[in-house]
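Q: Structure for this?
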Amino acid sequence: MPTNKPAAQPAAKKKPQVTPSPERRRELLDTAAEVFAAQGYNATTVRKIADAAGMLAGSLYYHFDSKESMLDEILSAFLTELWDGYDAVLAAGLGPRETIEALVTESFREIDRHRAAVAIYQKESRTLSAQPRFHYLSDSQVKFEKAWLGTLERGVAAQVFRADLDIRLTYRFVRDTVWVAASWYRPGGQHSPDEIARQYLSMVLDGIALRPT
Amino acid sequence: MPTNKPAAQPAAKKKPQVTPSPERRRELLDTAAEVFAAQGYNATTVRKIADAAGMLAGSLYYHFDSKESMLDEILSAFLTELWDGYDAVLAAGLGPRETIEALVTESFREIDRHRAAVAIYQKESRTLSAQPRFHYLSDSQVKFEKAWLGTLERGVAAQVFRADLDIRLTYRFVRDTVWVAASWYRPGGQHSPDEIARQYLSMVLDGIALRPT
DNA sequence: TCACTTCCCTAACAAGTGTTTGGTAGGTTA
DNA sequence: TAACCTACCAAACACTTGTTAGGGAAGTGA
């Protein structure tokens, strides 16, 4: 991080006297997210983002106060929407199997809508969550694990899921199978998010081996 | 890439008149791989690598001629070993199901031995393979897909695997479930690579849902 | 017309980047 | 002893990085 930060004047937090339009911000964040996802956060220079947006590097700072802020907004906006969906599912009082099905389906829908943000999250969250500013990533991950692991345990107790598997391994298995899809998924492909979810669930729940009838 | 490269003198490729020991190179590559895996290639400075190795940045250039060369050696060494294992499996003439089982088991063993290299590969291969120098990553990926997809198709034809699934989706499913494990796997954990492979195979082949007997 | 706001540009900055060059301590060989 | 080699250090280099300061063009409202 170059340039010396201005020592944080006491009662004068840096509040620029300008008011960028939220719509333009969203536009810029979307292109920034694409570049971040494609090249990786660290390999992405603000000049590349500016290029993709058709402007010069310095101009970005009219809308955002740092490159890190852009990343922050991208990730937190995504997580907020994600949890809106998840919380709705978890509050619906479904059985374990139905909850898993709903969570997986919801996840693929989020991948469809926030492909770039998901890809960034996957690549960078582990290193970012060490930073205090991105601690909410850890919080989210804990909540995430609680929701999925809890559902799996409920399922084992209800004899809906197999009891002979390491539950933690199962959790990671299900979680990863879903979210890595963001690395190859392209919206507008031949499968809709719901169709992908259906097939994934079929594989995860019943396996890919042919059952002797 | 800073500094102007010396214009590539015609008959004088840069061949230093020194002979670093291969053992020391391996040591340094191992620590470099750890740092790359932990921080990401781009976020890793040569000074960080040197720190981890207990020396100064410039000293690395006695052993390697660039940061990129280190990455190159790490990845190509890993892929060479990986394909040694895979080729042996593929040449064994096993049935489709047994081939998949052997490939998955072999993969987890590779993850156990080359955890850092696998993590780097996962994070960076997509962007790297665009560079001519790392084209072998694409080649490997093509060969990889051919081996796995071919085995799955054989299995469907032999009525060992389900025919009602999109085979391409299945391929990505199996591939991803295996390799993302590198992101959380730590050697010396409570499960051996073979045990993890066993449970993973059980999930992938038979599913996590409890079957009514 | 003037004042004001929004949005971008120009031009620079200081720190950090990968890399090179020349030197040197310590060991081995003759 | 001298010559040589290995493995590192010290110090710089050219360039890139995120960021800032000042300015200006175009539009809006009075």
